[in-house]
Amino acid sequence: MVKNLDLAVIGSGAAGLAAAVAGATAGIKDVCIFEREAWLGGILPQCIHTGFGVQYFNENLTGPEYITRFTEEVHQLQIPYRLNTLVTHISPSKRITYVNSEEGVTHLQAKAIVLAMGCRERPRGAITIPGDRPAGILTAGTAQRLLDIDGYLPGRRIIILGSGDIGLIMARRFTMEGAIVQAVIEQLPYPGGLRRNIVQCLHDFNIPLLLNHTITAIHGLDRVEHIDIVQLDSQLNPIPNTQRTMACDTLVLSVGLIPENELSYDMQLQMSPSTRGPWINEQCETSKQGVYACGNVVHVNDLVDHVTQSGHIAGKVAAKYLHKETSPPLYHMQLIPNQNIRYLVPHRINYNTPFTLYLRVTHPLRQATITLGNQVIGYRQRVTPSELIPLSVDPTKIIKADSIVAAITGIPDLR
After folding, report:
1. In which band, very low, low, confident or very high, does the pLDDT at 328 lie, cut at 50, 70 and 90?
2. What is the pLDDT of residues 28-53, one digit of tens each?
């Protein structure tokens, strides 16, 4: 016999816990959180640095401090959760299949689902670095878990490929633990992480950042011994006679994140090719009624505060759906990214509902003007692909149309 459930929350990171708490607070009685790790919180328990909660709580917290506030609410509200539980399949009819050591393979029918699976790191195989396959090559998140959860220092002479935020933070952590970070290598002419992390993690610790460089080969028998790097031109092609060798015993990869959307594909949701996440509207509703997506499973966010806000919206709207309080939208518009915009979220909006628009640019600009249809919705002195832009939008001021184009104009920033 298949069990029934009102709301299933897949993932217990900041988005998932915020959704579960918001749903339970709004009156959903039968909620359950599914988490494949042995603890609640997603990746946040291993993020022992500060910088969390500045917007959401108006406090500067560490990752464990931030997520503890939500786990405590989960316990106070007595929201059930299953740890060490892997959701293997969700059908288009919202039938969930999960497996764990206590129940085995179990099926469950949900009335509503919140997808909050987060994202995974891009590994070496996805970027095809040639060379040997020795020990000592790992992603930044794995290095962070080894150091901050398990207490192991993965290496002594470190090179970091990619300037994403986790890589920058790990450059600082390695240095604080006594390791030597030889360099952070980035193939683009600008760093991939937040400016505050460039300053606090690299400049403050005198760690070199090599822009327009990449790794061409990895050398080592049992352990990484050295790598070859080369300088790149504006078209990302190797410049002749610029190749050199750098000695190291560990190579850390910080080369991007990929939203975990295998379950979204199982459900046959409409997906965005630019974000690799589900299409959503401003209320985190996907293309399937009763299914909501929030946090990094939709797109990769810079701040956990934004992740939490989207989870809160998803849980609250799921409660309205279960209580049959929702009504058809007065108007529906599709948002289309155009000039200088790599992607934007949400992908569709209801004409009568104010919302927050998140967008990311294709390349750095100065004196940027952001427009949505006929409306100027924001100005920025400087924008860069590494920093997500949040904007408050009142759609009632925009001309009605089936689709509307967003664009950014400005001066190319070559610094």
Report:
1. low
2. 999 999 999 999 999 999 999 999 99
C-alpha span between 242 and 235 (Å, rounded): 15
Closest CA to 187 of 229, 221, 131: 229
Domain 3-120+257-326 has CATH 3.50.50.60: yes
Task: Return the structure tokens found at 79.
Answer: 């929201």
Determine contact, residues 138/250, Cβ cutoff 8 Å.
Answer: yes
Q: What is the CA radius of gyration of the chain?
A: 22
* Alpha-carbon span 3 to 220, nearest angstrom: 53
For the chain, the structural domain boundaries read 3-120+257-326, 123-253, 333-412
Question: Read out DSSP for 217-241?
Answer: EEE-SSB--EEEEEEB-TTSPBPTT
Secondary structure of 366-392 in the HEC alphabet? Answer: EEEEEEECCEEEEEEEEECCCCCEEEE
Model confidence band, residue 353 (pLDDT cutoffs 50, 70, 90):
confident
Q: Using CA atoms, how far apart are residues 196 and 403, in angstroms rounded to an integer?
A: 36
Is 118 in contact with 19 (CB distance < 8 Å)?
A: no
Q: Which CATH architecture has domain 123-253?
A: 3-Layer(bba) Sandwich (3.50)
Model pLDDT, residue 2: 74
The structure tokens listed for 138 are: 């790992």
Question: pTM of the prediction?
Answer: 0.94
Distance in angstroms (rounded) separating the CA atoms of residues 410 and 367: 5
CA-to-CA dists, residue 109 to 11, 91, 317, angstroms: 17, 10, 19
| Residues 275 and 287 sit within 8 Å (Cβ to Cβ) | no
223 token code pair: 């352990």
CB neighbours (10 Å) of residue 132? 13
- Res 331 pLDDT > 70: no
Tokens of 350: 């209801």
264-269 own/partner pairs: CB under 8 Å, 24+ apart = 264/115, 264/293, 264/297, 266/89, 266/90, 266/91, 267/90, 267/91, 267/92, 267/94, 267/291, 268/92, 269/293
The average pLDDT across 108-134 equals 93
